[in-house]
Amino acid sequence: SIKKGDSALSDATDDGTCVVCMHLERNAVFVPCAHRCCCVKCAKEIHRVKRFCPLCWTNLEGIIECTPFK
Q1: Fewest CB atoms within 10 A around its CB: which of 6, 7, 56, 66?
Q2: 46 in the Ramachandran plot: left (φ > 0), alpha (ψ -120 to 50) or beta?
Q3: Is residue 42 within 8 Å of 12, Cβ to Cβ?
Q4: What would the pLDDT profile of 26-69 be if each residue is shown by its tens digit?
Q5: Which residues have a Cβ under 8 Å from the Cβ of 32 and sit 6 or more positions away?
Q6: Is pTM, for the whole model, over 0.70?
Q7: H-run or E-run covering 64
Q8: How much is the pLDDT for 6?
Q9: H-helix or E-strand containing 29?
Q10: What is the pLDDT of residue 36?
Q11: Which residues of 9-42 are buried (b: 16+ CB within 10 A; e: fewer)?
């Protein structure tokens, strides 16, 4: 399993791509935890099906679309 500080987690997140699909830019913020780790497409599916943040497992109340990282 991946834990905070593991190189696999750093490699997956350092380039600004979605941690789920690994190819679209991160442009969604999860509410209430404020993690910005997914693209809107994946975030909407996570919110619809699983309803928890893939990084901290906080129950999700919603998502906010935002500008991708540059």
Answers
A1: 7
A2: alpha
A3: no
A4: 999 999 999 999 999 999 999 999 999 999 999 999 999 998 76
A5: 58, 61
A6: yes
A7: strand 62-65
A8: 44
A9: strand 28-31
A10: 95
A11: eeebeeeebbbbeeebbbbbbbeebebbbbbbeb
